Amino acid sequence: KIDYVSTEELAEAMWIIAKKSVGSTKDSLIQKVANSYGYNRMSENILLAMQKAYNSLLRRKRIQKIEGKIVVK
């Protein structure tokens, strides 16, 4: 269950995947992270958890969005 995965863990996984996925959009990055955790279907809870992780990375300036693409800092 996504409820058992911390925001920090999701954010770290997202950052690692973003490093290796040049040119990803927010939506494609979220989908890649969800898939890596075995979630093939995006429920509201999963989407909310992924968005929290994404926002955490933005807030901590570990990633930034340039022209719609995610760039790792």
Largest sheet: 2 strands, antiparallel
- SSE topology string: HHHEE
Rg over alpha carbons:
11 Å
> pLDDT average, as an integer?
96
Q: Termini separation (Å)? A: 30 Å
Number of strands: 2
Question: What is the SS-derived class?
Answer: mainly alpha
Going across the major beta sheet, what is the strand order?
A: 1-2
| Net shape | globular
| Uncertain runs | none
Distinct helical segment count: 3
Helical content (DSSP H or I, runs of 4+): 55-70%
Describe the overall structure.
The chain has about 70 residues and is mostly helical. It is about 55% helix and about 10% strand. It has 3 helices and 2 strands; from the N terminus they run H-H-H-E-E. It has helices at about 5-20, 25-35, 45-60, and strands spanning about 65, 70. Strands 1-2 form a two-stranded antiparallel ribbon. Helix 1 (about 5-20) packs across helix 2, helix 1 (about 5-20) packs across helix 3 (about 45-60) and helix 2 packs across helix 3 (about 45-60). The chain is globular.
Name some characteristics of this structure.
globular; 3 helices; mainly alpha; two-stranded antiparallel sheet; 2 strands
